[in-house]
Predict the structure of Gamma-butyrobetaine dioxygenase.
Amino acid sequence: MLSVDSVQSLKRDEGIEVVWENESRARFHAVWLRDHAPDKDTLAPGNGQRLIRVQDIPADVRIEAVSRKDDGKISVTFGPENKTVAFDADWLWANRYDRPELASRAPGWTRKEVVRWGSELEPELPVESFEKAREQGVELYRWLRDVDRYGVAKMVDMPVESGAICQVVDLFGFVRETNYGRYFEVRTEVNPVNLAYTGLGLQVHTDNPYRDPVPTLQLLSCLDNSVEGGDSVVVDAFKAVEVLREEAPQKFDLLAGYPACYTYAGAADVYLASKRPMIELGPDGELKAVRFNNRSIGPLTEIPFDKMAAYYDAYRHLAEIVERAELQVTFKLKPGELFIVDNTRVLHGRVAYEGSGSRWLQGCYADTDSLRSKLATLHQEWG
Amino acid sequence: MLSVDSVQSLKRDEGIEVVWENESRARFHAVWLRDHAPDKDTLAPGNGQRLIRVQDIPADVRIEAVSRKDDGKISVTFGPENKTVAFDADWLWANRYDRPELASRAPGWTRKEVVRWGSELEPELPVESFEKAREQGVELYRWLRDVDRYGVAKMVDMPVESGAICQVVDLFGFVRETNYGRYFEVRTEVNPVNLAYTGLGLQVHTDNPYRDPVPTLQLLSCLDNSVEGGDSVVVDAFKAVEVLREEAPQKFDLLAGYPACYTYAGAADVYLASKRPMIELGPDGELKAVRFNNRSIGPLTEIPFDKMAAYYDAYRHLAEIVERAELQVTFKLKPGELFIVDNTRVLHGRVAYEGSGSRWLQGCYADTDSLRSKLATLHQEWG
């Protein structure tokens, strides 16, 4: 609870200025306050959805009066409607937008929850027991928080049975079904439709960049892994592009500034293609996603001729960074173990395998919106 | 088939220049050609995936020799590997990137398949019979092509039974399950978790902008619609933002230049939030998506204070445009009818309804990547 010291109208009644007890201050526009007014005619009680359109707000909306009430709320009277509404001081604090830092962030910044990592994460890779997580308590809360924070986590003590991977998705969200199925087999096949279904090593990558929207979560569970090799490798691509920007900012700009193309046509009835940058930034420079996959990139047709040589230099540089030992975390999944990655952020790959024994993984896609929703609701209890 | 007139090396052997019989010419870099070389050691036979990493290409890759072969293919020898590969002339033509127009497109341009529309589409709204479409022939091809082109289409002759909507998704892709279920009921409810489940009119909108990734397709099917009112309205938001850009380019830039925020917390165990711009452009200015939804926008916390008033003016202007009669297509769904929209492009809404009778729709989400994949495979037969 942060209480308000004082409030006053701005000049020409275009908004208000609030000063909190911690001496922070923030201004709010009349139109913004009116649009977010927490009264039953603006926001539906129960579901909180807005009942008015933006054009239902008078174009000449203004502040008629503003004051701090005895209960600490901020009372605002809007003209010309002559409508009075009370705002929570905490809510105003949490949603203030009069923050100079909004205009000064460097391209590639991330939400505060994101912790970038390198190989130092290896001994501390987040891990939880499926038996504990399914209780829907603090263990699941911490596991989801770690997925949100690091973009990767392991789960152990899973049933060693085909399809159990979907039970992990059920803990927080919904399977994203694709042409590969609700879940898919990752093991050596004759005539594989995807190089994942061979014993070849796979350079670290994000999955399915040729899909749009890309699946934002990938899970890989282990049913058998008695081969020599076949270790899993994960790399924080948000860290990798930060390193790229430090070493060569103009290369970061190239990979963010032009769209790559990705295609998959490995089976007769599938032709997937997308056009998105390797480094995707929001309009405010926030790092939203990385797409990196040597198997499915190209043909690159959307980069101007005079940028192509430099673009390839940048791509090569990033490809070298993601293979540096100091960025890689390696582990070997055992039967009954699984790892999950944020597929917009964390690359995964594997060491080649061969010889006797067998390796049988299953994969599955899901999406982060449901994961973060579950995390937010568990946070109310355990945060 | 477009055959090649001549080929030659560029200076310093950094690439080649191809001249086709239509006198068009295009240059290709050595590194680009090497990365896309269609030989069995570069691209896996069968699934077409790339077997090499970009750093497996020598940094000093160059053209040792280039010539037109008797079969019309272009033979390229790469140094220092001394590797010779033959490229199809057609493939080079289709994938040439030496195109000056890449650098000169105005913000908000779209793929060539996209046809923007206004109310003139109403009498010509694409429609197909479910019975015909399920034959997986030319009718399905044309219907999917129309969805890709206009972002909206109707389907008729559906079974009037609960859940039949999923059979339409099965024609081309996969249901995107969400907290609303695999499909969901759209009818008047007591204590609705969403204003869609009331008799209120709904301003045209894209669905679930608070989800990330947003569902890229939405379907709505009709089981009963005997009320007064309840007509469906669709608007091409790609057209609407084009109008906005013509009338006020700086407003287009504001809505594309700053992220909006969207939230949904209508049920106890759901808290969805996203941060994406109303007008989403790729780094090359391509119009990728529009998010517009008065019910779930805000709190807007990511727009700097000194831009907020202008941002609201721009939002208000766009909200007025999408309600102009010349942009709206209206129809009333009958039982056994459905419409599909590209939820990144086409807004949908409804006129309020009340009185006797009832209105029962079902909704379902899916994704465009599978739809376009299906379209591409049907195109080979019917295009």
Summary: Chain B has two domains: 4-103, 119-382. Chain B touches chain A through 98 residues (CB under 8 Å).
